[in-house]
């Protein structure tokens, strides 16, 4: 059974930008039990609008009768700082003012997120992570963590991610933030600010998560049709769906977090940084991913010592890492046989 937890750090948490949070809370889940020597930890880092329960969105990899079975492993996943699902974010109350942060919530980088995860790791007295897993934004966290604490991470599996966020990815994120900023309500300090803009932002994001072939297959138009297409309905539906479970402040915070990612920052560049990773590493790419194209995963595997790169042929684009469970499982099993 998945268990929900809340970790409170009641001291100033200093951020990479020089700003700080007076305190922070991290919502997290655990699945399974720690063994006696705490050597069975599987730490999962979630993606952009994901929650802290990977058995929800990675059920093909995590769960009973799956590769990472809670009967064998202690699976932990933390809702990232700034996100909507229980961790400190813009809708939290600033203890110094007694008011919600709203637009005053500070900038949070990938490196800040990892440092917050390390606080929890130390609190739980976990000294070794058997497997560190992450896709997309989660993969960015994972590779950053393997650099900050190389001795702690034993094995890591990186899905559809990169070592430095590309200008292409930043442009997609800025377009989404423009949609939020152009919502007239974004100027107000209320929990509902920018929500209609976020709906448009989500529609923009979907174009990068899938691709031309995916839409042709799943949102095909009928012969002779001139209006009210499946693609119209789909874009609106996905925007409305996010409105029911997220907030625009967190969307803004996490999109900026995406853009901040650069493992080479203050480390002499990407290659030099990746060459210091000690974890045994598997990097998985998706052939049709246009947001994090396979060349970005190949580059990670090229520079991390003895890393392996596997490419999965899929038409699902970036979302493939949330869908192609059988192929990903087979890739991991084959890799395990080699190391």
From TrEMBL:
The alphabetized UniProt keywords are: Acyltransferase, Amino-acid biosynthesis, Cytoplasm, Methionine biosynthesis, Transferase
Q: Which GO terms describe its cellular component?
A: cytoplasm
Instruction: List each copy of the AB hydrolase-1 domain by range.
Output: 41-322
Where substrate binds, per the record, is at 202, 319
Which GO molecular function annotation, any one, does this entry have? homoserine O-acetyltransferase activity
What residues sit in the active site? 136 (nucleophile), 289, 318
Top EC class for this record:
transferase
In terms of one coarse class, where is the protein primarily found?
A: cytoplasm
Biochemical pathway: Amino-acid biosynthesis; L-methionine biosynthesis via de novo pathway; O-acetyl-L-homoserine from L-homoserine: step 1/1
Q: Name one GO biological process term.
A: methionine biosynthetic process
Q: Which reaction does it catalyse?
A: L-homoserine + acetyl-CoA = O-acetyl-L-homoserine + CoA
EC no. given is 2.3.1.31
Q: Gene3D superfamilies attached here?
A: alpha/beta hydrolase
Cell compartments where the protein resides: Cytoplasm
Function per UniProt: Transfers an acetyl group from acetyl-CoA to L-homoserine, forming acetyl-L-homoserine.
The record's family statement is: Belongs to the AB hydrolase superfamily. MetX family.
Q: Which PANTHER family match?
A: HOMOSERINE O-ACETYLTRANSFERASE (PTHR32268:SF11)
Under the subunit heading, UniProt states: Homodimer.
The identity of this protein, by name, is Homoserine O-acetyltransferase
Q: What is the lineage of its organism?
A: Bacteria, Pseudomonadati, Bacteroidota, Cytophagia, Cytophagales
Q: Which gene encodes it?
A: metX
């Amino acid at each position: 059974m998945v268990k929900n937890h809340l970790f409170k750090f009641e001291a100033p948490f200093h951020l990479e930008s020089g700003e700080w949070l007076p305190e922070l809370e991290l919502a997290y889940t655990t699945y399974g039990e720690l063994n006696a020597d705490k050597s069975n930890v599987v730490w999962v880092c979630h993606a952009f609008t994901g929650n802290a329960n990977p058995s929800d969105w990675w059920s093909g990899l995590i769960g009973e009768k799956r590769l990472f079975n809670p009967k064998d492993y202690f699976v932990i996943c933390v809702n990232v700082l700034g996100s909507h699902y229980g961790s400190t974010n813009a809708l939290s109350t600033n203890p110094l003012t007694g008011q919600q942060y709203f637009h005053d919530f500070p900038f949070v980088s990938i490196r800040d997120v990892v440092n917050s995860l390390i606080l929890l790791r130390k609190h739980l007295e976990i000294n070794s992570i058997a497997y560190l897993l992450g896709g997309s934004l989660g993969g960015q966290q994972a590779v950053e963590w393997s650099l900050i604490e190389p001795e702690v991470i034993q094995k890591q599996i990186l899905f559809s991610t990169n070592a430095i966020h590309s200008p292409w990815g930043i442009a997609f994120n800025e377009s989404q933030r423009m949609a939020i900023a152009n919502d007239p309500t974004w100027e107000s300090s209320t929990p509902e600010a920018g929500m209609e803009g976020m709906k448009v932002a989500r529609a923009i994001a979907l174009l990068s998560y899938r691709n031309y072939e995916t839409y042709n297959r799943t949102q095909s138009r009928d012969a002779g049709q001139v209006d009210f297409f499946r693609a119209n309905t789909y874009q609106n539906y996905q925007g409305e769906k996010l409105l029911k479970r997220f907030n625009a402040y967190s969307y803004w915070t996490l999109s900026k977090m995406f853009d901040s990612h650069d493992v080479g920052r203050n480390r002499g560049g990407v290659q030099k940084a990746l060459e210091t990773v000690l974890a045994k590493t598997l990097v998985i790419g998706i052939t049709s991913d246009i947001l994090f194209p396979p060349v970005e995963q190949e580059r990670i595997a090229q520079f991390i010592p003895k890393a392996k790169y596997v490419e999965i042929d899929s038409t699902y684009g970036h979302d493939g890492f949330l869908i192609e469970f059988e192929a990903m499982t087979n890739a991991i099993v084959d890799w395990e046989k080699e190391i």
